[in-house]
């Protein structure tokens, strides 16, 4: 009876660590790989900064070095790590010098704190608010120590800042430095597919004689492309920045065009043409002048061209075929859409010239729609990487 009691007392204590480890494992499995890598890098930077600086830091407490290392290892790109390192070192050294100067003049008093805050705020219009806040906070924290040991209190934090910056920068640059190529690729493809879908839907709607009922819906969708455009622009900019000074790029021979920056530039121009087409169709749908309405012959041909253009826009960001591969469908679709649009343009120009269109009073609308789709396809043709 006594043995069973002891066993009952021991068993729960043995299962507690096991259940805790299991819960921790479940949480880690639920995290994305990027989050796990980011957490490991943060831990490495903190421990390394502590190990490097603790032996010579006053009292063995290198808190400033660890804080600086954590700030820089959490930068989104290696390039930002470098710029943040320079800014952090300059700001903190400036704050320490400011603390030394005010301590000598006013001592560790409330007046010294007030002077530090005023000077930090008025440091200069080109400094950001974060820089000014970092200068002021560093100076206020160092004020008391500076008053008792001016030289030591200035030298040790400065060295800690430099050491922490070096550790954070080294860890971020050498331990799986961040790249955002997948995010850039996804954002650009999403933008192209949204524009292609809108062009295809406009073509289908025109073929079904839905201009009056669907025109404002198309215009609203065209205007909403601005959000996708801004999102893609930010992702491409971040991907371009992540390639700068990135050791993974050198090891894997990454190229700058992997960020789709050229494709995005072309799609930004295409978005203007898509919005112009939607706006012209919406204006014409509610134009009460009977002579300005588009003829069915024009709408049928233009519907085909919009559908071709939609396929071309979506095919523009399709993966290129491998060298020597017979798969050239994306390029062929783009070329076919362009050739079809040019043939359509020649036909419609001839019809307008001979005055055989059923609604010759809408010639200015014809011209606007034809110009927009021509420019759209020309932009894709010039920028097509294949």
Mind sketching the topology for me?
Layout: H1 2-30, H2 33-53, H3 63-73, H4 78-106, H5 110-121, H6 129-148, H7 150-174, H8 181-207, H9 211-242, H10 247-252, H11 261-285, H12 296-316, H13 329-354, H14 363-383
Helix pairs in contact: 2-3, 2-7, 3-4, 3-7, 4-5, 4-6, 4-7, 5-6, 6-7, 8-9, 8-11, 8-12, 9-11, 11-14, 12-13, 12-14, 13-14
Task: List key phrases describing it.
386 residues, mainly alpha, 14 helices, 79% helix, 0% strand, disordered N terminus
Structural write-up:
By secondary structure, this protein is mainly α. The chain contains 14 helices and no strands. It is elongated, with a radius of gyration of 32 Å.
Low-pLDDT regions: 1-16
Indicate the structural class.
Answer: mainly alpha
- In sequence order, what are the helices and strands, one letter per element? HHHHHHHHHHHHHH
Give the integer mean of the pLDDT values. 77
Fraction of residues in helix: over 70%
Described by strand count, sense and barrel closure, the largest sheet is: none
Q: What is the total tally of β strands?
A: 0
What is the alpha-carbon Rg in Å?
A: 32 Å
Strand content range: under 5%
Shape, principal axes of CA atoms: elongated
Distinct helical segment count: 14
C-alpha end-to-end distance: 82 Å
Question: Summary?
Answer:
With 386 residues, this protein is mostly helical. It contains 14 helices and no strands.
């Amino acid at each position: 009876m006594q043995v069973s009691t002891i066993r009952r007392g021991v068993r729960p204590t043995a299962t507690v660590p096991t259940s805790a480890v299991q819960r921790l494992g479940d949480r880690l499995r639920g995290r994305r790989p990027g989050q796990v890598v980011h957490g490991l890098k943060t831990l490495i930077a903190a421990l390394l900064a502590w190990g490097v600086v603790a032996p010579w830091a006053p009292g063995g407490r290198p808190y400033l070095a660890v804080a600086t290392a954590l700030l820089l290892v959490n930068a989104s790109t290696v390039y930002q790590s470098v710029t943040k390192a320079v800014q952090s070192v300059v700001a903190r050294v400036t704050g320490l010098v400011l603390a030394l100067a005010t301590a000598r003049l006013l001592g560790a008093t409330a007046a010294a704190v007030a002077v530090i805050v005023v000077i930090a705020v008025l440091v200069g219009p080109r400094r950001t608010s974060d820089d000014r806040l970092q200068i002021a906070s560093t100076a206020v924290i160092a004020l008391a120590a500076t008053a008792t040991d001016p030289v030591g209190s200035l030298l040790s934090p400065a060295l800690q800042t430099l050491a922490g910056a070096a550790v954070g920068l080294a860890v971020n640059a050498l331990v799986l430095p961040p790249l955002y190529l997948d995010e850039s690729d996804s954002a650009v493809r999403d933008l192209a597919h949204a524009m292609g879908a809108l062009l295809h839907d406009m073509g289908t709607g025109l073929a079904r004689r839905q201009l009056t009922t669907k025109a404002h819906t198309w215009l609203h969708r065209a205007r909403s492309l601005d959000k996708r455009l801004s999102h893609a622009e930010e992702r491409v900019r971040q991907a371009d920045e992540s390639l700068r000074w990135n050791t993974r790029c050198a090891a894997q021979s990454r190229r700058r065009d992997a960020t789709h920056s050229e494709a995005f530039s072309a799609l930004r121009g295409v978005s203007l043409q898509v919005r112009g087409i939607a706006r012209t169709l919406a204006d014409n749908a509610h134009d009460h002048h009977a002579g300005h309405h588009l003829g069915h012959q024009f709408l049928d041909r233009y519907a085909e061209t919009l559908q071709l253009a939609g396929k071309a826009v979506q095919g523009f960001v399709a993966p290129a075929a491998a060298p020597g591969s017979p798969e050239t469908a994306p390029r062929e679709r783009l070329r076919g859409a362009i050739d079809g649009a040019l043939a359509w343009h020649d036909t419609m120009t001839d019809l307008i010239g001979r005055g055989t269109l059923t609604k010759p009073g809408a010639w200015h609308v014809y011209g606007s729609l034809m110009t927009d789709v021509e420019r759209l396809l020309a932009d894709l043709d010039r920028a097509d990487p294949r």
